[in-house]
Amino acid sequence: MTSQAPGLWPPSGPEIVFLLLGAVVVGSALLVVTTRQLVHAALWLVVCFGALAGGYLVLTAEFVAWVQVLIYVGAVVVLLLFGIMLTRAPIGPSSGLDSGNRWAAALVAVATAAVLVTVVVTGFRAAYAPLHPGQGAAEPLGASVFRVWVLPFEALSVLLLAALIGAIVLSRTDIRGRE
Amino acid sequence: MHVVYPVVVSALLFSIGVYGVLARRNAILVLMSVELMLNAVNLNLVAFDVWLGDRLHGGQVLTLFVSVIAAAEVGLGLAIVLAVFRTRRTVDVDRLRALAEVPPASGPGSERPAGSAVQPADGEGAP
Questions:
Q1: What is the ipTM of this complex?
Q2: Are A67 and B64 in contact (CB < 8 Å)?
Q3: CA angle, corner B34, sides to B83 and A16, nearest 5?
Q4: How is residue A75 annotated by DSSP?
Q5: Based on C-alpha coordinates, what's the Rg of chain B?
Q6: Is B71 on the interface with A (CB under 8 A)?
Q7: A28-65 pLDDT, tens per residue?
């Protein structure tokens, strides 16, 4: 794995593409947490997830990339937009989106980033993963899910059903508790 | 592909999510930041799966599972946020203090209850 790995600095073609996508991911994520308009935050979230799906494609995880587009960009962001709409959020820029402890939060986030980046750079500086296209296509991944991981898969389907029933019960107003 | 690049991007994304969870006041924005953190974990899983060359594709399958759990989490979280909005008419997490141990004497301006353990409680902070 680490034998005859090329040097870190002149990045190869896929690495350059991944770094550009990573810059888009980090930039749009920063805009998600700093923008003053709620709807814009949801739309920047779309950009962030889309660039992340591109990063998965570069990492040869094709199936995960399309699932990311379907679930996150398709379902989760639409749910979040529904939530924004149903809580009657203001459409224009609003000032009350950040709480008063913003600087403490920034300090904690910068400390977290420093610790994590230091640890992973020290730990995985020499790690090199050769990319083989087709590694994460639908066929090997589907065979793996339905042969090896079939029990967690079924448990997860039950969990999803329970979560959806819970969401329905929570959001209906005509279901009361006992007594 | 050097493993450092995706892992560093994932670490930065995770800390941005930490900032969003701590600094945002609107509950829906907090949920969005939690999504950012889950995506950072997903990127980590995919990168290490590609690096280790797992025959069982454990990392990528776990990424799919995390996506499904994130969808369930966002559905339940939004249902809870909507229930809170129905009863309180607000989704500001700063103002939902009904479960706080010591109710604050004033509004959200005074965040430090330094010697407030002996102060008598004068009503809830909820509007």
A1: 0.89
A2: yes
A3: 150
A4: I
A5: 20
A6: yes
A7: 999 999 998 889 999 999 999 999 999 999 999 999 99
